[in-house]
């Protein structure tokens, strides 16, 4: 984050000063303009700026009428927020295992559908959109809603369509560690349904429809104006950020030894933005320690699947229920791919990984 700020200091500080000088720290034109710009970018009719991707999921599902006792099918290898958003609105997270690329398996989704299933939540993990064509076939056959957890995939495409444009709602995070990032917690929701957008816009601000007039009880989930102003700048530079990340991913594919390192291929229908670059290897923990010895950072996203989290204990799952996810949790490792790297940095990381395997 410090390296990003060094590159972008002048532009960011100019926007910070402009917002503080005007004094409109909550609401104002920056919010509305950002919503319009994101809608145009994603090819959707409506965007609602919020304070997190988690709230986008929860408020979006609530606006769609998902609630107490409804089941929502999602993968068990996501960040905790995906399942938490389902549980906090009274619905039940139902898990379906994943494919080799870590995205939800459409066949397992079909098998998980019950009479109580209300929606599916494909999680576009690592900046790669889930295989949406067969997933949409499942939803059409069973009359289900689609809630895209697109928190990690802003700008990613599948068959030419952007993340967030497939579902009844698309839910995004603009957390500082995302490709499209604010300097604090932020998020937004995309939809083509004007009624849903209106409901979410009311819910984010106590249900207010005028000064002192509330039609329904709501929440405080506003994106603050400072974050919106910075995100408007980040949207301008995002194509360059994505281009750099994609180029580094291509270098990893060129230099890493495929005999020891599994890298999910990028299919012709995909345009991945590489929020993370995740490899799958045996002896993962030993490799991670080897990288640390060479002062190379790496991370595990995420080491404990959702169905095995203590918070999910009431759902009755056990080890072995989702074997692909559990096997990947032992093998996944995220390598550096952020835009402030150089090509030599990426080559050094790849060479260090290869040297571990001899």
Which descriptors apply to this entry?
3-stranded antiparallel sheet, alpha/beta, 358 residues, Aspartate Aminotransferase, domain 1, 7-stranded mixed sheet, globular, 2 domains, 14 strands, 41% helix
List the helices and strands and how they pair.
Blueprint: H1 2-22, H2 29-42, E1 46-50, H3 53-63, E2 71-74, H4 80-88, E3 92-95, H5 106-112, E4 117-120, H6 132-142, E5 145-149, E6 157-158, E7 161-162, E8 169-173, E9 187-191, H7 194-203, E10 208-210, E11 213-214, H8 225-255, E12 270-271, E13 277-280, H9 284-293, H10 323-329, E14 332-335, H11 343-356
Parallel strand pairs: 2-3, 2-4, 4-5, 5-8
Antiparallel strand pairs: 1-9, 6-7, 6-12, 8-9, 10-11, 13-14
Overview of the structural elements:
The protein has about 350 residues and is an alpha/beta fold. The chain folds into 2 domains: about 1-95 and about 100-235, Aspartate Aminotransferase, domain 2 (3-Layer(aba) Sandwich), CATH 3.40.640.10; about 240-355, Alpha-Beta Complex (Aspartate Aminotransferase, domain 1). It is about 40% helix and about 15% strand. It contains 11 helices and 14 strands. It has helices at about 1-20, 30-40, 55-65, 80-90, 105-110, 130-140, 195-205, 225-255, 285-295, 325-330, 345-355, and strands at about 45-50, 70-75, 90-95, 115-120, 145-150, 155-160, 160, 170-175, 185-190, 210, 215, 270, 275-280, 330-335. It has a 7-stranded mixed β-sheet with strand order 1-9-8-5-4-2-3, sandwiched between helices. The longest helix is centred in the C-terminal third of the chain and has 31 residues, at about 225-255. The mean pLDDT is about 95.
